[in-house]
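Tip: read the tokens left to right.
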């Protein structure tokens, strides 16, 4: 317990530190800037967990003419794949190059719903960039073009990701030890 600051998970540990995160995000941004050099893509962020990653990724595409828009969704129960759009895009993506930016993909059911929805709007291209990929849980194949880190079957928080709205402002990605008694925290 000792040594943890008030906003850190009491039974957690750092999985990916801020320096490594920033290095990888800079690489992803440079790759996107190179791949879309002649285009003007729209980066679509899925709220809310993506905001920290998307902000850093945007800065890393420095020099690339691009736009940003957001969607917000709510899921009914983990793994159900039943998703409702709470906030839609303000931009028409018809004929546009779209990069869907996600914080984490687990089963992939949420992402599949969003991709199908966006595909129906006839973008010129549609690819996925996710910071974290929990491949072990994947139920549906997905066209993920850019991945920050593949991680194991652990519940993670920080760098935008939450547990019940907590921990989003941690600069590192932490694993919450689910075997520990969380009520103690
Ligand atoms: P999927 O539909 O791919 O199973 O679920 C994806 C969503 O579940 C993510 O957008 C995220 O909201 C949530 N999620 C999955 N794994 C984690 C995790 O380890 N930490 C957090 N904070 N959210 C997660």
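Filled-in amino acids:
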């Amino acid at each position: 317990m000792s040594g943890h600051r008030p906003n850190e998970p009491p039974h957690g540990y750092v999985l990916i530190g801020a320096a490594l995160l920033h290095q990888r995000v800079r690489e992803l941004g440079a790759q996107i800037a190179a791949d879309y050099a002649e285009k003007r893509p729209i980066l679509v962020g899925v709220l809310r967990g993506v905001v920290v990653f998307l902000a850093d990724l945007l800065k890393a595409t420095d020099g690339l003419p691009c736009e940003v828009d957001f969607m917000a969704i709510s899921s009914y129960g983990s793994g159900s794949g039943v998703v409702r759009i709470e906030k839609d895009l303000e931009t028409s993506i018809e004929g546009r190059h779209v990069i869907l930016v996600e914080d984490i993909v687990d089963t992939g059911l949420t992402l599949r719903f969003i991709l199908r929805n966006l595909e129906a709007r006839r973008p010129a291209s549609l690819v996925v960039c996710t910071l974290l990929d929990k491949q072990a849980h994947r139920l549906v194949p997905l066209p993920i073009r850019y991945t920050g880190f593949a991680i194991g079957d652990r519940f993670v928080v920080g760098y935008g990701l939450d547990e019940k709205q907590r921990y989003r402002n941690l600069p590192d990605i932490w694993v919450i030890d689910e075997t520990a008694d969380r009520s103690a925290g």
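Strands lie at 12-16, 42-47, 67-75, 83-87, 97-105, 125-133, 144-150, 156-157, 173-176. Residues 49, 79, 104-111, 155-157, 161-163 surround guanosine-5'-monophosphate (CB under 6 Å).
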